[in-house]
Please model this.
Amino acid sequence: MTAGAVIAAMLALVATMLAATMLIAWRDFGRAPHALSWACAFAVGGLHWYLALGLSLFAAPRATHQAVTAPTLLAMSALLYLGFRQRAGRRAHPRGIALVCVAMALAAEAAALGPWAGPTVPIGNPVAAGFLIAGAGLVRHRARSATAAEHGAITALVLVAAGLLATAMLDAGEPYAAPALRRAGQAIVAVLVPTGFAALGLAAVFLVAADLSARMQRLAETDPLTGLLNRRGLDAVIAAAGGGWRWRRRIRGVAVMADLDRFKQLNDRFGHDAGDAALRAFASLVHGRLRPGEAAARTGGEEFAFVLPGETPAAAHGRIEALRIETEELRLPGRPDVRITASFGLAAIASGTDLGDAIGRADAALIEAKGGGRNRIVVADRGVLPDHA
Model:
């Protein structure tokens, strides 16, 4: 058995195991669409390497080898790319991707078997490499730094793409390359492709598991009624601030506590459905006013907390005042006569101030706002602002 046949057999076995593993991950880890696309990709990859193995064992001509394996190589890389698009939340465009694969497969067939075919250059390889490189560009989420699994997936995709491109260049330059140089290039390809393919499979499995873990964490830290953070999520934000060290560098920020006024009376008079609708409507207003890096949580029945890093008390007061006015203008579906108002407490997060302490001071200011007549804003250590009741 030749070295090429051994590599093909090894990759066929790896691809088959990865397809089975990814299918299990899809079934047991939330049935994510990208996991199913990757399972299909590795299944097609297994078929590709089994075909390559059979052709190597029967010493098929290179043109036949390329004509038979080009469609599966293109399909595998396209399915991998499709999965990364789905994971990134992009529109999948499966028909467009399929049309590209069909067109390039036909071109590869014509280049390999047509009457005009000259030196057999695997033209499907650059297209497949393009799919993989494009997939690598979709791995990292723009709003956060890449995880270890994402770094591994990017590296593996680049390795496999480099191996495919190197193979194409070797075949194109074979009539002109010195034997020693050709052997060195083949040795490099023999390392790049198997290593990259195996690493890609492992990275894909870790990505699915990591995504599930992140999703479960988000669910555990999210209030299901409003979609904002819950108390646990707010505690995680406080813990991430490192007991105040981050605020020392940012120097300023504002913590806000809010409470819907007379919420119990709303529930008693109109029912809990009306109360839930009021909470969701207020949370929607809050979410619409959040900026990147800011956080909002529902910390109790009708109580909310906001963390506004980098904001000044004056600017925060202006934003909260606009929110207070918008809350007054809220009307519940089917209950146009119901008036909703909210009270707010603000506390500055100064240099060296602990975030938890700032939230506590904002809560004390909120209590003062409630006791002073409701539907108003109180700034900690600065007194009550004009009455809006």
